[in-house]
Structure formats: structure tokens, C-alpha cells
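Page 42, continued from yesterday. The earlier attempt failed because a stray header line got pasted into the input along with the sequence. Redoing it now with the clean sequence only.
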Amino acid sequence: MGSASPDFKGTHYQARPFSRTDSIVVNSPLFDGLPEVKLQELLDHPAVQAGFAPFLVALLTAELFQRIKLSGLAIIAGFAVTIYLASDFTIDPLTASRKIVLLGLISAALGLLLSLSRSRWLVSLLPLLGGAAAIWTAQRILQQHPPQVVLLWGAGCAAYVAILVWGMDKLENDPIRAASAATALGMGTGGAALVGASALLGQFGLALGSSAAALLFIHLLSNKALPAGRVFTLPLALIAGLTGCIAVLGANLPWYALSLLAAIPIAAWLMPLPKRSPRIQSLLFALLTFAFAAGAIYVTWRVAGDVPF
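This time it went through. C-alpha cells are written below.
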């Protein structure tokens, strides 16, 4: 994609202050001996918005829907609660971050449809659709630059999202690989975006990682694998891919960090599955995939420096 990226650093995405519960106060034995804690302050904390809340919601969703083999809905449920707490679901004006949310919800519905219908011809089109979604999401940012830059970065973003969609789709029938790769991809994307100076995009990625970690946690705790399916892999790949692209174009995420993130599902797919328990398999795949995620965060830190907020 070139040796140096053009200057796309004019756009930053900041989380909107949450103000739905200003007057509600938590009074519980859990907080005995502590100062009075306002619920708003608790829900405003980034660790709750992009970590604890999506993890808890995804955990409950995975458990509730496992009997009908739709535990994969956990990924979009966890992501949705982060959007509710840190942003909103409005689409006007249709900014890049709102396009990510909209396409994420649509992809979850499409993934559910594909989980039920198994339409092969539509599955074969998923990488192409992912690439088209990347170009549409980045359209307004790309239009501010010369045609040769638009062509280079438009093709690069489309290829990145298409690779993630293709790679994660290879794991849709393998929940052990899918959960580990999804957790690493989400955490790696969110961590790199956060270091690259985009708070909201960082929360998007971390919410995906926290939601996927709920399935990984269940695998480790129960020593059983929950079904994932395309309702899990498709929205995860699309949201993570679009988030990474916009973080490159609008923040300080270096483009070559995306190559490390793109390698996560491919590495999980190619690694032989050891003849061990699901718990051990999950740990091994988590170690492998998190090495790539850590690499993406590291190279971003080398370029952007410390987190600026």
C-alpha cells in the first residue's frame, strides 16, 4: 500500500458524554464504606463501556441462545451495548463511525440469515461485499484527496476488509479458533486505534474483543465449545475491518499494523488443531493470535507515542 501514508489526520472520533441517568445513584451493599457513587459516573467509565458491559451482555446472550445454536449473537449484543453507552444509534449525519454501526447491525442480520439458510452463492460474495462496504464507509474521507490517493487507499481498505471477512468465514464452523481469533482481532484493533488517538474507534474494537472474550471464557470455564457461526464471524470481521481502516485514514494508526491484524484469522485457520481438551486448545490459539494483536499495538505505539487521553 506504499511506503508512507498520506495525511489523513484531520478527523478524530470522540465518545459522546452519557447523560441518561444523571440523577440515579447506586445504593447497594456492594458499595458499603465507599463514597456515594453515581450510576452515570460508573457508566461513563471507558472500562465499563468497552470492557465490562459488553463482556457481561455477551456472556448472558451466549448462554441464553446456546440451546438454539445462536451463541454467536453475543458479538453484536455486546457491541450494541457499547454503542448505547458510548455513542448512539442515530444515522444523521451519516459519519464514518455511524456507517460502521449501521453496517455492523446489517451484517449481523445477514449472518443470522446465512446461519439459517446456508446460501453458498451469497457466502462466496461476502468478501466482495465487505470490500464495497469499506469503500462506502471511507468515501467522505477519501474524497478530500487526489484521485491517485483515493485509488490507492480505497483499494487497500477494500482488500483489508475482504481478507478479514474471508479469513473469519473460514473459522465459522470452528468455535475454538473463531473465539480466540475474534478476541485477539477485537482487542488488537481497539488497542491500536486507542493508541492511534481515536477514543470512539478504540471503544468499537475493544467492545468486539470483550464480547468475543465472553465465548472464550465459556470455553475455558466449561471445557466445551459453543457454536459460533456466521452470525458471529461476519459482523466481527466487518466491524473490526472498517474500524481499522477508518483509524488509519482518520487517526495515527500506521497502515502496516493492519497487515498484522489481517494475519490473525489466517494464522488461526492454518495452525493445526492439537488433540487436547477445548480448554487447552483455546489457550494455545489465544496465545498465537494475541501475539499478532500485540504486534499491531506495538507498531502503532512506535509511531503515535503514548495514548493522548
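Notes: The longest helix spans residues 278-304.
Reminder to self: strip header lines before submitting.
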